[in-house]
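Changelog entry

Holo records now carry the ligand SMILES as an explicit input line rather than a separate metadata file. Below, a converted record for zinc ion, shown in the new format.
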Amino acid sequence: MKAVIWQGTNKIGVETVPDPTLLLPTDAIVKISSTAICGSDLHLLDGRIPSMEKGDILGHEFMGEVVEVGRDVKKLKVGDRVVVPFNLACGVCDPCKRGFFSACDNSNPNHRMAEALYGGVSGGGLFGYSHIYGGYAGGQAQYVRVPFADVGPFKIESDLRDEQVLFLTDIFPTGYQAAEQCGIMAGRDVVAVFGAGPVGQFAARSAQMLGAAQVIVIDRVPERLKMAEAAGAMTINYEQEDVLTALREATGGRGPDHVIDAVGMEAHGHGPGALLDELQVKAKISFDRITALRWAIMSCAKGGTVSMPGVYGGLIDKLPMGAAFAKGLIFRMGQTHTHRYLGPLLSRIEAGEIDPSFVITHRATLDQAPELYKTFRDKHDGCIKVVLNPWG
Amino acid sequence: MDNPNGATSNMGHSTTGARLQTTERLLLASLGLGLMALGTRGGNVRRLAFGGAGALAAVLAARGSNPVATAMKIQTDSSGETRVSDGVTIGKPAAELYAVWRNLENLPNLMRHLQEVKVLDDRRSHWTVKGPLGEVSWDAELTADEPGKRIAWQSVEGASIENGGEVLFRPAPGARGTEIVVRLHYRAPLGSTGAVVARALGEEPSQQLRDDLMRFKREQELGFHPTTEGQTSGRAAKQQEDRPQAQPGGALAQGGAR
Ligand SMILES: [Zn+2]
Ligand SMILES: [Zn+2]
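Structure line, unchanged by the conversion:
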């Protein structure tokens, strides 16, 4: 089959590799009908996530048709059309039972690597996202092996198009969880979203669905801000205005009640903080540039929430903890507990509350993936979200 | 191999050889409770710790708080005993888990460094450890057996390696199952030298124990071990040529780091 392969930092190619096979009786094989490139894949492209190996198959946002199931798979049948959460969960451990699927105890075969790096605990496995997270082959390919087949894959029985349900695999639940964990008081709270990439777009729309009085989206890319405006959000271009001043003004000096950092560790920014981050990243002392997080903390209103769907990988210093403490902020973060949201968010799509395909700007074949990784990274050609057809 | 002890020259070659073997065996024994090369299975961790991507770990190490570095330390108390302990919480009742451990002949399935445990009678058993350098065995006896709560054992007088251990089973708060705590102790005959050489060999008891406990948890909770071993990749064609023979239940079958 054809697959998108990580060949080294800033080297991504499409190669022909053996088809996946069942390795355990609880596995299934899915023939992929649509697959997407995620903003977090860009952290892999530029080598910021440790433990990638040449030859790894990328991709964690995919859906398709079940073509084979292991003998212990009970719920899933050949022919089922499924979306597959980007994270793997066992469904039986204590975190899974409590709904903290991304913190699964059992789904990461390389737990010892994560334990070594993060000091004693490991999250669950992820598709196509480095060996710390299990080294599972990803879904930017024609077929994929799906472990824990009775736990993750979610059947789509309505006739919604792929493009309407594909993002249930990651960015829609990720944006939604970011908004949900703010604990928005409907009709009262103002929510600011840093980063108008795909997750930021879904976070902004989710905050609206949850009743935010106003949503303010901050970015520097005009077409991304335009997409947020189309949903009724107010926008701030941080290259044209001072963000903190603009947010104070927009909120009568209070600051947004909740702030979502949908940027994570690759924030661009200005000033001495940004410069320090960049030097540390260059010196490989830190994986993280944190301008967005600094702004989020400094702008957030008293008693507010800093919600962080953006990915962080390492250590951070020069964080304004004094400001966070003085205002009594609440921090929420982590990988998305995708499994929780599949049913509820599918219902919202079916009810016409949202059509997730709004975010797609580029459609291409798998062969074009290497080129589109770069287009997406460089934000060329108005690129916000790329969907690939593995059979095109 | 050169004689690390600098054996005196008037000893016959074969004698030196024998001494070396003994040294090696002692060394092995000193590591006995759980030594397995990090080499293949831990390769990735090491690359992570010391490779380019591991700058984080390097920085942490410089600050003395690197979890990898901590894990690499071999902790010895004032009496010269090396101690290793760890715990895991498993979503099953204590009685059930205790029963698995109490079947001593099953221990090699739980603790991978053990080659064999033979039950001799109610109290006594014969333990064999196999490592990269050879085989060591000794007799042990149960010093405590509290059903559903605790099992403890100790090597008998004159064992080639003085060692012991205990496993505690206690209910986790909030109906989360059972907390299992394993404590092992052993006396390294070569003292700190043994420990240093052990580290050079890349053998690491606390990591081994951690792996054993996680494997046990997954066996009990899932009934299988998650794996990526044998999955397709851009390395697949090459791998088929170089892949060593997979051993059932071994590092490869567990999907250990490559
Ligand atoms: Zn993603
Ligand atoms: Zn789990």
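Spot-checked after migration. The pocket of zinc ion (ligand 2) is lined by residues A 89-90, 93, 95-96, 104-107 (CB under 6 Å). Strands of chain B lie at 81-90, 114-119, 124-131, 134-146, 150-155, 163-171, 178-187.
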